[in-house]
Amino acid sequence: MGNKMVIADKNVELKIRAVGLKPTRQRIGLARLLFIGCARHVTADELFAEASESGVPVSLATVYNTLRQFVDVGLLREVLAGPERSYFDTDVSHHHHFFHVDENRLEDLPPGSISIDDLPNAPAGSKIERVDVVVRLTRK
Amino acid sequence: MGNKMVIADKNVELKIRAVGLKPTRQRIGLARLLFIGCARHVTADELFAEASESGVPVSLATVYNTLRQFVDVGLLREVLAGPERSYFDTDVSHHHHFFHVDENRLEDLPPGSISIDDLPNAPAGSKIERVDVVVRLTRK
DNA sequence: ATTTTAATTTAGAATGCTTCTAATCCATTG
DNA sequence: CAATGGATTAGAAGCATTCTAAATTAAAAT
User: Fold this and answer.
1) Which of A116, A117, A134 lies closest to B132 in CB terms?
2) Cys staple from B73: which of A108, A138, B9, B19, with CB 3.0 to 4.6 Å?
């Protein structure tokens, strides 16, 4: 049990090393929260609160820095669900989201939902970086 | 010519009245910029700059108030393209967008692009408000 | 081990967009 | 034309995020 934890920690450290970042205490702590267990959607604030509660010594600035770095190296994906704040998804595979407007919460679309046909050509001089689909939900 | 302008102004005033808002100098001025001519995508800042240049006496606060009110009454649609700022679309019909990441600029998808099949059911207790598709573009 | 080096973290300030406040203004009504 | 209640405003405040410059720390070199 304690054994499993140590192994997971090692994996997390390797994961950070693998993308060319130094495995600092802060990055390891945040990566454990993000990557051990199920896929998740977090905001900077949420992750900072969680880190504080679970004793990971980290400042809010570092949470922002780390999230951005993890996105840059492909460990996280930033999901653009609204203009108020950024969401980060530990599942970097191509998929889309529900956004619960009343709760500011993201949820994955059930697999197999939404297939996009007739994707348009990019205008001259541009290329498609990606296609985001957000299904906005309100309380019934 | 001056005649056409006057007619357009009257239409704009009626449009504002029709949704239950007082046709003040500011709202009429902003509505003329927004609704006379082709459909457009603006940010609060852009509209404020344009109003200032063209002699519409309005403060930035009122631009924000007015945009929000116009969205509330269905005269405008807010487009969620990224976390940095809000975009407002004078075309309130159901359609989707290109977003030029390098220029912070929206553009309508060509008509007929993107048909969404297999729209998922909303989770229990929620209902689908709308589906946003944003095709993000970078320079080639 | 110790020192060195360069990257990382940090608190706090700064930024950018948006909303709020409370005082003034003005479109409408009687 | 005066009264009234909504609209506008400047400026402050709020919030998410980034920046800055100083202190810390992981890794490399000795």
Assistant:
1) A134
2) B19
Please give the Cα distance from B12 to B18 (Å, whole number): 10
Q: Hey, what are B40's tokens?
A: 């457009």
pLDDT at B2 (0 to 100): 43
What are B10-24's pLDDT values in tens digits?
Answer: 789 999 999 999 999
B108-118 mean pLDDT: 83
All residues at 6 or more sequence positions from B40 whose CB lies less than 8 Å from its CB, including other chains: B34, B89, B90
**Nearest one of B80, B72, B66, B55 to B133, comparing CA atoms:** B80
DSSP-derived pairing of the beta strands A41-42 and A77-79: unpaired
Alpha-carbon distances, residue A70 vs A47, B91, B97 (angstroms) = 13, 37, 27
Query: Choosing among A106, A133, A134, A139, which should be mutated to test the B contact, i.e. which has the most B CBs within 10 A?
Result: A133
Q: Averaged over A77-92, what is the pLDDT?
A: 95
- CATH number belonging to domain A2-79: 1.10.10.10
Give the residue from A49, A73, A70, A72 showing the smallest Cα distance to A59.
Answer: A49
State how far the Cα of A109 lies from the Cα of A41, in Å rounded to an integer. Answer: 13
Cβ contact A37:A54 at 8 Å:
no
Q: Which residues of A touch B81 (CB under 8 A)?
A: 80
Predicted pLDDT of residue A4: 54
Q: Tell whether the model's pLDDT for residue A2 goes beyond 60.
A: no
Q: Which helix (H) or strand (E) holds A48?
A: helix A44-53
Q: Specify whether the CB–CB gap between A58 and A48 falls below 8 A.
A: yes
Q: What is the pLDDT of residues A88-113, one digit of tens each?
A: 999 999 999 999 999 999 999 998 78
